[in-house]
Design goal:
Length: 202
């Protein structure tokens, strides 16, 4: 379904549970949400009493508002990569968040691409690393990295891309969590990527 609304009954149908690695694109999700053995992309807000991601991959681009979020059995929550001025975030507002030892929130490389940084700043030049809350590295007498940006205490922007000549130097994405109780046995990561000129973390 494209740009529709997915309800709890839809999530529990056999046809959805057997989609395998196919992305299902949705506008929003409501009620109780249980994702199992699927790849789901949600462009709107996930507004549900509970969200369970079980051996599934959830790309959330509009935020999650719920009482509880559980990631189990190699579950992954991520967001879309930055495209132009469009910046997505994993934005969770919940009473409880639980991530088991096999699961993760992973936005590695989902930030600004190589040769791109926050609006209004010059990107990192050739041979320079990406910047974010601190400035990326650069060698003496070589073109400089981008200036640092964003809040150190309340960051809300992705990591800056590394030099334009490193196609893989994409910055880390954005994860924002407001939860009264967090059980973290897995990982939350927003690393910058890059083969030669590393990008900045989110």
């Amino acid at each position: 379904r494209n740009n529709g609304t997915l309800f709890a009954d839809d999530l529990r149908t056999f046809s959805l549970a057997t989609l395998g690695t196919t992305w299902l694109r949705l506008g929003a999700m409501h009620t109780n949400s249980a994702l199992q053995n699927v790849h789901v992309k949600v462009m709107g807000v996930i507004d549900a009493s509970s969200v369970v991601v079980d051996h599934a991959r959830l790309e959330t681009n509009g935020g999650i508002r719920t009482n509880s979020v559980s990631l189990i059995n190699e579950a992954v929550v991520t967001h879309a990569p930055v495209e132009g001025a469009n910046v997505s975030r994993v934005d969770i507002d919940a009473q409880t968040l639980s991530i088991d030892a096999t699961s993760s929130i992973n936005v590695d490389g989902m930030g600004y691409p190589n040769g791109v940084t926050a609006p209004g700043l010059e990107p990192s030049k050739q041979y320079a690393g990406g910047s974010h809350g601190g400035r990326g590295g650069f060698a003496p007498y070589e073109p400089p990295s981008s200036l640092a940006y964003d809040s150190v205490y309340d960051p809300n922007l992705p990591g800056g891309g590394g030099a334009q000549d490193d196609d893989n130097a994409h910055g880390g994405g954005v994860v924002r969590i407001r939860a009264a109780n967090i059980t973290l046995d897995g990982k939350i990561q927003a690393n910058g990527m890059g083969q030669y000129r590393g990008a900045a973390g989110g």
